[in-house]
Specification:
This protein is of the alpha+beta class. The chain has two domains: 5-256; 260-355, no CATH class. It contains eleven helices and 16 strands. It has helices at residues 5-10, 12-15, 24-31, 54-61, 63-66, 120-129, 144-152, 165-174, 194-198, 219-227, 325-328; strands at 21-22, 42-45, 70-74, 102-106, 133-134, 155-158, 178-184, 203-204, 213-216, 234-237, 240-245, 247-251, 282-283, 297-301, 313-315, 350-355. The strands form three sheets. The chain has an eight-stranded mixed sheet with strand order 5-4-3-2-6-7-12-8, with helices on both faces. It has a four-stranded antiparallel sheet with strand order 1-9-11-10. The chain has a four-stranded mixed sheet with strand order 13-14-16-15, with no helix packed on it. Residues 1-16 and 81-85 have low confidence and may be disordered.
């Protein structure tokens, strides 16, 4: 956990610049598989303005269906809560001071007739009758005030700022919380994140890594991307411009996907699966080609994590499988770039794995 509190709090302003607004459809597709985990639990969405966040909208609409004990949402100060194209409730003017950090807690929900089932109009009514409470601080998830909400929570569900992903994960791991969060696919290769994957403290969520996730962003973001010809950062979806990032879901809640047996059909041959120049492992360029009769060390693409079954494979520390002294002292457990060359040709980032000999 970071100890430089002042630096952390001041970085909150810059953190808002890389917040992306998750589509409700993506939340529905991922979170439904976890529905049995939510009963009688306190869910915290600690990077979510309830007026803008589809995470809040989703849990509010499903509060009774999931049997939640409490829903807590908090946001950074300066959140553009109303009067923007991202406001989920354009007809509702928040009764709170603008540019203030605030929280909203829900412990029970019913519609105007007292029935357990309700719709978006009921959620909007509750927001109107019970507006969020202004926080003392700036709403930074690392602040002492927000840490108290984290301690109370059972499950954290949110899309944290990408620039603070390492610190966000470090915090929820430190406090031993369950979580379902979104992060950049490249986070897999971070020296702070990959060890957690290898130790089975964090893994890929239900949504396949190959599925594109698009985000709502302010119009200013889109205008700048188009003006600077950053064509790959925005894309038109159903006639609407959205931000494109290499994003995936991460969780530490057990899911069916982690227990599905990986079936391979390839036979090992030295010609098809050559060894790396600097590591005692063979190169497998496609996860689908993992040889079914090879029990040695293999280098596979990071997309293998989509198929990773910890009962069938183990993830290894690449530093233990090289005779090159400088590679033994690297900060990462991965095989990367020119260090992972085969016959002098560099490869992309690779994970070293070994099949578990279950029968023996």
């Amino acid at each position: 956990m970071s100890t430089n509190t002042n630096k952390n709090l001041h970085s909150a302003a810059s953190a808002k610049k890389d917040e992306y607004y998750t589509q409700l459809s993506d939340i529905v597709n991922e979170l439904y598989s976890y529905k049995d985990y939510f009963k009688d639990k306190v869910v915290l969405c600690n990077c979510d303005d309830p007026y803008e966040s589809n995470f809040f909208k989703y849990f509010a609409l499903n509060f009774n269906f999931f049997g939640l004990k409490k829903l807590i949402t908090t946001c950074y100060s300066g959140s553009p809560i109303s009067g923007t194209e991202l406001n989920l409730f354009p007809n509702l003017e928040p009764k709170i001071a603008k540019k203030k950090a605030y929280k909203l807690e829900i412990t029970e929900l019913s519609n105007a007739d007292g029935e357990p089932n309700f719709d978006l109009n009921d959620v909007q009514r509750i927001l109107k009758e019970h507006p969020p409470a202004i926080l003392k601080g700036n709403g930074d998830f690392r602040s002492k005030e927000c840490l108290e909400f984290l301690k109370e929570a059972d499950i954290v569900v949110t899309n944290p700022p990408f620039s603070l992903f390492r610190e966000f994960v470090s915090q929820i791991i430190y406090y031993e919380k369950k979580f379902i969060i979104i992060g950049n696919k490249n986070a897999i290769t971070y020296k702070e994140i990959f060890p957690l994957i290898s130790q089975n403290k964090l893994w890929i969520g239900v949504t396949p890594m190959s599925k594109e996730i698009y985000f709502d962003v302010p119009q200013a973001y889109i205008d700048e991307a188009i003006e600077k010809k950053k064509d790959r950062t925005v894309v038109k979806v159903d006639g609407k411009y959205m931000a494109r990032t290499q994003s995936i879901w991460f969780t530490n809640l057990d899911i069916k996907k982690r227990h599905e047996k990986f079936i391979s059909y390839k036979e090992y041959t030295p010609k098809e699966f050559p060894k790396y120049d600097n590591y005692d492992a063979i190169e497998v360029s496609k996860s689908a080609d993992i040889p079914e009769n090879y029990y040695g060390v293999m280098g596979v693409p990071i997309t293998f994590l989509d198929k990773y079954n910890p009962e069938q494979f183990e993830i290894l520390d690449a530093r233990d499988y090289t005779n090159i002294e400088r590679l033994k002292t690297k900060s990462t457990m991965l095989v990367k770039d020119a260090d992972g060359s085969v016959n002098g040709k560099a490869k992309y980032a690779r994970i070293l794995i070994r099949r578990r000999n279950i029968e023996n």
